[in-house]
Amino acid sequence: MKVHKQPLLMAFLIVLMMVSACRGDSGPQPTPVPGNIGTPIPATTEAAAPLTAADYFARGKLAYDQGDPLAALSDLNKALELDGANPEYLYWRGIIHFLTGNFEGALADFTRTVELNPGNPETHFWRGRVYSYTGRPDEAIANYDVAISLNDKNPAYFFWRGAAYAYRQEQDPAIADFNRAISLDPNVPDYYHWRGNAYAFLGNLDQALMDQTRALQLDPNVAVFYFERGRAYAGKGDQANALLDLNKAIELDSGRAEFYLARGLSLKAVGNTDGARQDFQRAAELGSESAAKELAALG
After folding, report:
1. Residue 42 · residue 58 · CB < 8 Å
2. What is the pTM of this model?
3. What is the spatial distance between Cα 85 and Cα 188, in angstroms, rounded to a whole number?
């Protein structure tokens, strides 16, 4: 439901994770959107029979499962016109608002759902996600706290709270939450990637390398994992391995200014001024002010 720690790049998904992504929002989606709830399919037209709120909800849920969020939203609106205090309908409409980028609508629906059903950890969690995606980490953490108090076995709750701490540049509690997420599910590459970023921020480059390497073992096709491992190698003065990783990052995603900037810096460090100039030029074309300054410094 992409979250890495550079002053701005740590914004969610983060980003982002967090949908994302941290790969699609935030990266791999460590927080899955709720799946098919198996509601029976109702009559599909009002002419066949008057549709109830439950019918509209079921039809909307079917549209959602089939990848048509706009049709799903239309039916959920109709369901809520008939039963406006149903927390399940509000929750699902909030999910669809979130996925379509209507964070204001999502926040309103999740807040109303929390009022109607405060014991459901998912509603607190998804409201926290809205706050994460809109740059409000304090409110996000408060909601993740409640979700965790209601269910401390869901790794996504800890991951997203850790990402919010990282956004506030509080790396120690962030690492503690990433540790907990990994202990609950050791097979999500984003968890290692984000923990590696936190370790790198603290200067623990050896641990950062280990975590980024583990993320790549779990998913070797994510450009930002190579980028962050390459930066860690560069930080240790290992420009040869840094360049290998940065080359791979650019091969996978050739539109990221920070990738070219980092490779340019490594090329500059090994005395390849012409290669560095080309990378700084490309990064500047993609909008990097830092690259423009590096380019000017080369003359």
Report:
1. yes
2. 0.83
3. 36
